[in-house]
Design a protein that fits this description.
UDP-galactose 4-epimerase, domain 1; 7-stranded parallel β-sheet; 13 helices; about 40% helix; globular; binds nicotinamide-adenine-dinucleotide
Length: about 375
């Protein structure tokens, strides 16, 4: 497969994958609304089509014009907090627009899809042995109550179980005329695992992918990324979000004096230093993960769901230390109580990625801090150059 269409390719993770595709001589078309992406993140060799996945006719025209052999889909909203306040916005972009993309792929005869999924699908561990997370957890664990936290429906507060039911009812009402997209009781029980609407939308997407495999032969790989941080070691691209929410970027913003203090939520977790432990992964490692997943689809013509993580956990304090070493500056922090729903530890089991894709993460936490520091300190306003 040499011609790839990348949705959301002008965003943070997408642009790092596009860079790798171009290095590997793929012909790349990026379809991006530029709502959160930056055309400056794309090199000259990339063809950019500014379009929104909500506009099915336009997306179909783009497919007819370029005839991609495969799609890598990064386009989504991903702010967990916002998803709890505005679930319909997340339904529309992360579920309905994704179904639009699959419909267009079906019509155009495009048979391969790589999709950004997320560790947010896993929710909270039920027992210590659930960590590191294996992909099979979401197959074997069948809760009968949703783990979804309290959120808002039409602006009014709703408790988790009610929130979940309303979201599923909304899905069913939108697709009431499409029996093939109906959710079975078994599928609904899997959807009870995530804590957030964001995680739930991605869990629905994975189910929809399975349905499109069965009904249209679209073979796909869902890649469940863990916590992404770091920037292109070449220094040309990096994360450029107007309101960053990730720990490493916020620590760097504090070191740069852009925020007053870095908030640490929870110092009494049962971890090495009391702070939460997560699996951090560099976007250039994710990029090679996507390329190997493309090869896998071409060679095996088989759908998979695969974790992309390092398999190593780092605590909040370790991330801050890595930023301090990379920047040579002290990060000012303030301790706060735990946030509801934050697990103490979330780490990937990357065995399957090793077995199926022969992929392994290369970048360390220090590499992530060094590359991110280089990017943010040289480009404090992201792609808005002086
Ligand atoms: N960044 C992370 O830590 C992380 C972790 C796990 C999973 N993911 C997933 O990876 C993907 C990319 O994340 P990111 O951090 O690069 O986000 P991002 O916001 O930087 O990139 C998303 C891109 O998609 C585009 N887009 C969004 N909706 C669109 C639509 N309807 N039509 C066309 N373009 C649209 C945006 O303009 C943007 O360029 C997302 O699907 C996200 O859920 C990210």
């Amino acid at each position: 497969m040499r011609k790839i269409l990348v949705t959301g390719g002008a965003g943070y993770v997408g642009s790092h994958t596009v860079l790798e595709l171009i290095k590997d001589n793929f012909s790349v078309v990026v379809l991006d609304s530029l709502e959160a992406g930056h055309k400056e993140a794309l090199g000259e060799k990339v063809t950019l089509e500014v379009a929104n996945l909500s506009d099915k006719n336009r997306v179909l025209e783009i497919f007819q014009k370029h005839k991609p052999e495969a799609v890598i889909d990064f386009a989504a909203y991903l702010a967990v907090g916002e998803s709890m306040d505005n679930p319909i916005k997340y339904f529309e972009n992360n579920v309905a627009n994704f179904v639009n993309l699959l419909e267009v792929m079906e019509k155009s005869g495009c048979k391969y899809l790589i999709k950004s999924s997320t560790a947010a699908i896993y929710g909270n561990p039920t027992k210590d042995s659930d960590i590191p997370w294996k992909e099979s957890f979401t197959e074997s664990y069948k809760p009968n109550k949703s783990a979804l936290l309290e959120g808002k429906w039409n602006g009014a507060a709703v408790a988790g179980e009610d929130f979940f039911q309303r979201f599923i009812d909304h899905y069913n009402s939108i697709y009431s005329g499409r029996a093939e997209l109906r959710l079975s009781p078994d599928e609904i029980s899997k959807l009870r695992i995530p804590l957030s609407i964001y995680g739930l939308t991605k869990a629905i997407d994975e189910i929809v992918m399975k349905k499109y495999d069965e009904m249209s032969g679209i073979k796909s790989v869902a890649l469940r990324y863990f916590n992404v941080c770091g920037a292109d070691p070449g220094g040309k691209i990096g994360e450029a979000k107007p309101k960053p929410t990730t720990l490493m970027v916020l620590a760097i913003y504090q070191a740069l004096g852009k925020v007053l203090e870095l908030k640490i939520f929870g110092t009494d977790f049962p971890t090495i230093d009391g702070t939460g432990v997560r699996d951090y992964i560099h976007p250039s490692d994710l990029a090679t993960g996507h390329l190997t997943a493309l090869e896998y689809l071409e060679e095996n013509n088989r759908s998979e769901i695969i974790n992309l993580g390092t398999g190593h956990g780092s605590s909040v304090l370790e991330v801050i230390k890595a930023v301090e070493v990379a920047s040579g500056k002290k990060v000012q922090t303030k301790n706060y109580p735990r946030r509801s729903g934050d697990p103490s530890i979330s780490v990937a089991d990357p065995t399957l990625a090793g077995q199926l894709l022969n992929w392994q993460a290369k970048y360390t936490l220090s590499d992530m801090a060094e590359t991110a520091w280089k990017w943010h300190s040289e480009n404090p306003d992201g792609f808005l150059r002086k």
